[in-house]
Amino acid sequence: MRGDAVNPLGVSVLALLSEGPMHPYEMYQLLLERKEGRIVKIRPGSLYHAVARLHGRELITEVGTDRGGNRPERTTYEITPAGRRVLVDRLAEILRSPVREYPQFTLGLSEMHNLSASEATALLRARTEDLAREIEELSGFQRLARERKVSEIYWAGIDYTYHMLDAEVKWLTSYIDRVDSGELEWPHAISAQHTTLTDRHRPHDPHASGD
């Protein structure tokens, strides 16, 4: 990836402006309405910063300002031809090339044997409850989109997120059941005798003391 690559929020801004000119507040409201916060981190300050950076790189341009009532003056932007090229190139890169993202949850799963089985499963159950609420929220969004006859092409990211969360809940539920039933044996208290995966696969060192 090039050092000057547009970040995820910048991609969202370019994509919004490819639909038509709009000002940052309108972009912010649309992103929230479309549940894009499940896909990119959205904060007003970071959005305005992203707009400023894109404008500085001449990927978007100002097309006018307006002031309604007592509201602050708002600048409307539109995407430039260079911005369209960057959007297309960046989307192609994102879709084609997997990126290793190092999610924290995977780290937690890898190290949760440091907790007791009851602690770990209680935490995982709480996680599945939170995920279930998110799934229900996304399901409601999907129902509304279908009622409004919005093509799934426009909310593929939300649909993907919904199915990934659903798959996570199913995996976690099965994992918890296996621990509870004893099918998956949990290690006892961590001690000097605790054997890790690394220990079991560590090559024998003939020069180690005691050999």
TrEMBL record:
Xref: InterPro entries: Tscrpt_reg_PadR_N, WH-like_DNA-bd_sf, WH_DNA-bd_sf
Domain of life where this protein originates: Bacteria
Transcription regulator PadR N-terminal domain span: 13-87
PANTHER family in the cross-refs: TRANSCRIPTIONAL REGULATOR YQJI
Name listed for the protein in its UniProt record: PadR family transcriptional regulator
